[in-house]
Structures are given as structure tokens and as C-alpha cells.
Design goal:
CATH class: Mainly Beta
Shape: globular
Order of helices and strands: HEEHEHEEEEEEHEEE
CATH architecture: Ribbon
Number of strands: 12
Structural class: alpha+beta
Radius of gyration: 20 Å
Strand content: 25-35%
CATH topology: Umud Fragment, subunit A
Largest sheet: 8 strands, antiparallel
Number of helices: 4
Length: 212
């Protein structure tokens, strides 16, 4: 093997190793993202850059109430009255990719994969009621200081309004309640579908810091 070919193979080897390490870091540790929707306004605004902490997914840690998380978008975004089952309020995930390459492309490269950013409102075993424009957890009104004054929480059309959060699931909603497609309409999110916790806002620079 001549010197030039050996040098080329060494460079290719280094590039492959770097790509693998970057993908592992992105999947298990953290990654940047851009806010694309208005559902978390005013906490998060479109085109802001965020750093996502994915260590919780790696360790399978349940998020806490108030955490802003990202999760895989359910395949069924809404239900008819006949389909609503508040005894089993879990979001549906169907049509999962099959085959090693398709799974790698979807879950690791996140090709054709949609994710939502919402705030955790209720945890496993808690009784959630949405009524009178407010959220009740185990019979007590939830204080939500992160909402804008006058924000009303309700369900337009069909949705989940009185249920117990199933084991290993969370109930999450956007802060911009009137413009958020969230667990009210598609059900609670299983722990294994939670991708990350929003950690730091990295852009714009004047708002740099931890997101709460």
C-alpha cells in the first residue's frame, strides 16, 4: 500500500469515527434545535435556538412537572367522540419503521420524524380535570405562572378532560393554549417517546440562559 492511499484511508477512518461519535452524542447526550411553532409562546418564540438535554432519555428518567420536553409526535393527532377513551388516555403510535436502516434513519438521523415541544403538566397516577378554563390536579387548581394573563385552558371539540395519567406517561400542553395541539387532543405521552428536555436558549444571545 503506497503512502498516499494509506493517508487517504486514515482520513476516511477518522471521518467515520467522528461521524459516529457525533451521532452518539446527539442521540444520548444533547443536540441543538430551532423553535418552529407558536405553541409555547411566550416562553419560546419561533426561530429561537435551543439546546436539548437528552440524558433523561438515556437514563429513562421521568421528567418533572413544569419541565419543557420534546417528544415524538403521535401518529393520530385527534379523535372522534366515539374514539375517546378516558380510561386509557395514551397517545397512539402506529406505523413504526421496520428494518435496521429505516429505524436508524428515523430514530437516529430523525429523517421524516416530527417532534413536539410542550410543558409537562401532570405525572403518572395524577387525576387531571380540565374545566372552568383551568387545570385541576387531584382536585386542586394548578398554578401556572408561566402563562400569559387571561389564558384559558379548555378543549375545543373532542379531547381528554377528566382522566388519570397512566403509568410511565406524562400529560403535556403548550403554554399558548389556544394555539397548541397537545395531550388534550391526542392523549398522554409514554416515557419511551420522550426525546429530550429543553435546557438552554442559545439564541438570541440577549436571552441566552436556562429555559423554565
Amino acid at each position: 500500500m503506497n503512502g498516499k492511499l494509506k493517508d487517504l484511508l486514515e482520513w476516511i477512518y477518522c471521518i467515520v469515527i467522528a461521524i459516529v461519535l457525533a451521532l452518539l452524542f446527539r442521540y444520548y447526550i444533547g443536540t441543538p434545535t430551532i423553535v418552529k411553532q407558536v405553541s409555547m409562546y411566550p416562553t419560546l418564540v419561533q426561530d429561537q435556538r435551543l439546546w436539548l438535554n437528552r440524558w433523561g432519555r438515556t437514563t429513562k428518567k421521568m421528567p418533572e412537572r413544569g419541565d419543557i420536553i420534546t417528544f415524538e409526535a403521535p401518529t393520530q393527532k385527534s379523535y372522534t367522540y366515539g374514539e375517546i377513551d378516558e380510561s386509557n388516555p395514551v397517545a397512539k403510535y402506529e406505523n413504526a419503521p421496520s428494518g435496521l436502516w429505516k429505524k436508524f434513519a428515523y430514530y437516529v438521523l430523525e429523517i421524516n420524524k416530527d417532534s413536539y415541544i410542550k410543558r409537562v403538566i401532570a405525572l403518572p397516577g395524577e387525576h387531571v380535570e380540565i374545566k372552568d378554563g383551568k387545570v385541576y390536579i387531584d382536585g386542586k387548581v394548578l398554578e401556572e405562572n408561566y402563562l400569559q394573563p387571561g389564558i384559558v385552558t379548555d378543549v375545543v371539540g373532542t379531547g381528554f378532560t377528566d382522566f388519570i395519567v397512566p403509568e410511565n406517561c406524562v400529560f403535556a400542553m403548550g403554554d399558548n393554549r389556544a394555539h397548541s395541539t397537545d395531550c388534550r387532543v391526542f392523549g398522554c405521552i409514554p416515557l419511551e417517546k420522550i426525546e429530550s428536555k429543553v435546557w438552554i436558549r442559545i439564541w438570541p444571545l440577549n436571552l441566552w440562559g436556562k429555559v423554565q
